[in-house]
Amino acid sequence: MRRRRRDGRVRRADLVRQHRARLGVLYGGVFLALSSLIVRLGEVQVVQGAEYRASEQVIHYARIPVLPQRGWIYDANGQVLAWDVPVVKIELVRSRPLPSATLRREAQLLAPVLETTPSALYQKMISNASALQVTLATHVSDAQVAFVVEHEAELPGIQVTQDYERQYPYGDLAGQVLGYVGAITAQNVGQYPGYLDNQQVGETGLEYEYEHLLQGKPGYRLVAINSTGAGLGVMKEVKPVGGDNIQLTLDGREQAATQEIIQQMLASSTGQHISYVAAVMLNVQTGGVIAMASYPYLDPNWYVNGSYVKHAHYLETSGAQMNYAIQAINYPGSTVKPANLIAAMNAGVVNPQTRILDNGYIYVGTQIIHEDGGIAFGWVNPVEALTVSSDVFMYEVGLRLGKWLGSSDTSGGTYPASAGSYQHYLDTDFAKGINQIFQEEENFGLGTKTGIDLPYEVPGEFFIEDYQKGNIQVPYNLQASEASIRKTGQYVNYGSPASLADADIGQSQMFSPIQLAVYAMTLADQGIRLKPHLLERVYAPNGTPKNGAKPIFTYKPQVEGVVKAKLWEWNLVKQGMHGVTSNPAGTAYYAFLGAHYEAAGKTGTAQIVMNGQRTDNSVFICYAPLNHPLVSVAVMAPGGGYGAQFSAIIARKMIDAYFDEHHEPWMPKSQWTSTRIPQSWFSSPAYLIPEKSP
């Protein structure tokens, strides 16, 4: 029994020792664990404390759109005409309707941050109701950005965007051609699938025409924001893709010279009310637009978000928002005579030996129509008819085309007996004759849209006098007439044979300056009608005309039509048009006196009514040099008087300026100029005068 108790004591002692050993291990483990925890906490507190304290305050991630840089626009010599300047904006995006009360609360919260009043900010929010976005502030600070992001839940529709401001460094230089950008609106949002609501898009001019090239693709930044409004960095970034850069055929220096020339002519034309002036110069070999001026001038920098913010009265009353070169049509006067002479020669009613007596007037039925100015040129042949611009010669030619026979300074003439009745004559011989005149003009590019790469081009119009309506001019549907004659042999109309005479001297049709420039180019190319264009090359976003990049697209000249005529016909017309500028009897002789090159031209003076007053539309077309043409020009100035006195002078100076710049061998070296837009442009009246308007 004693041994058994002693053994029990021995076993309990062993157990105690084992427990103590285990506790020691356990305590050691606990100590090590606590030590590690203390070390880790120290590391967290001391080394990473700032980072973790900040991370505890992160409230959300903000996705900030990054809009692409819009493609730049360069002139033919590589000078920038339109570019982008990066800015950060705060905008109201109206992708869904927001109640007025919500907007007022937002204005109350945001106004102090944007340093304005709640009332002023609210008015800005509700302005331009059709726009899907309204810019509230530009060039904003980091603090303003942080405030908007931090209070995102309280500011529905308010966004921070990195955007670009479109700028036009030369102001009103080719303003209507370049156009301007504006906001996407509720009316046009369907045209821009995939666009952000706050993207700017081209509204007019080349900005609109080449929106698909210039726009680019947006990106975004994912930014972490803490409760203090501080950004913790960009978590993710998808970079935007910039738009393509485009180079134009437009010569910036020639454009500047043209606008200055027009301004000088206007300044010297005291006592005349000239509503607008449009001038176009084309490259005869390619169809490229070298210059396109439209007065009154427009500066695209006056527009922000598509709405003008400067010179509102000037823009609303002057008509400067129109590009008169492509959007205005008027009577061309005698400039159509070369085309109509081609029509007459093709029809066999005129040949080189044709001579017509011009006694200053002619009877057509019971009407008497006079030579402009009452001049009598005597016996005139086709070349002389163009050189001196004999109306009576062309009256007779037009009447012959319509088979109205016997008109002279003593007789009113009549229709052929074979026609039966007067109405049947009108429906057959008259309609066929007037169609020959109008169709040949259309073959030259007159009356129809040229297809130039600019928006809002308008077609021309043709007219006849309607005897049922008191011989007033009414529109004439050339296509319908030709279709009817092909089908039935006649076209019912209530015209007058006087319309044949009027049409042949440019008083029964209305054309635009771009159509007249294409017409002059087609005369220079002996019937090859090229499509006019402004785009020359397209470069990728990082490519420019001056950094050695290869263009991704280069325009190739396009033939739009061919006017068929014999070589002797072209030579006859060329000889007559050369006489206009070189023969002392020529109507534009003094305008081109002393020129170092030869030119072929045609003046036009059409009687028009402006503001209830009778006046003249001054028109001129030409090409130069005579034998190896490089450029064609058309100038139109309603109210400018005779074509030779206003428009022809502008054309002459435009051609001089272009040849000076391009160092043609016949131009005096002392007059050679560089291709750069001159610094003097910024002090020229053409640049400054619009700025002086209220």
TrEMBL record:
Transmembrane segments: 21-39
Recorded topology in the membrane: Single-pass membrane protein
All residue ranges annotated as the Penicillin-binding protein dimerisation domain in the record: 68-230
Key words of the record: Cell membrane, Cell shape, Cell wall biogenesis/degradation, Membrane, Peptidoglycan synthesis, Transmembrane, Transmembrane helix
Cited SUPFAM superfamilies: beta-lactamase/transpeptidase-like, Penicillin binding protein dimerisation domain
Localization terms from the record: Cell membrane; Membrane
Pfam families: PBP_dimer, Transpeptidase
Main location, first listed in the record: membrane
Keyword Transmembrane helix: yes
The keyword Transmembrane belongs to this UniProt entry's keyword annotation: yes
Limits of the Penicillin-binding protein transpeptidase domain: 278-655
InterPro entries: Beta-lactam/transpept, Beta-lactam/transpept-like, PBP_dimer, PBP_dimer_sf, PCN-bd_Tpept
Family label: Belongs to the transpeptidase family.
Protein name per the record: Peptidoglycan glycosyltransferase
The species this protein was found in: Alicyclobacillus mali
